[in-house]
Amino acid sequence: MIRKCDITKDRDWIRVDKFTLKTMYDNVFAIGDVTEIVLGGMVTIPKAGIFAEAQAKVVAQEIIDQITILRLILNLMERAFVLWRWVVTKQDILK
User: Fold this and answer.
1) Conformation bin of residue 27: beta by default, left when phi > 0, alpha when psi is -120 to 50
2) pTM score
3) Closest Cα partner for 62 from 30, 14, 24?
4) According to the model, what pLDDT value does residue 33 have?
């Protein structure tokens, strides 16, 4: 079934980043025996169920990190807006 999807790009397996397990698509991860994780340009990690649990933990942490970073960026943007409004208000008072 997976071979019929565009995500394999004419390969037998889904190629993922060896550190994050991200696919070539934004916010799409792959784990388990459908993945192809290449190490050193030639060696691939075996496709065994025991690796899927560890891969799931990696993907879960990646998603948590993305959410945390997004929240941090939004918080900084909110603070910058509050500061900007304060500066504008002060300038209006001084006029």
Assistant:
1) left
2) 0.65
3) 30
4) 83
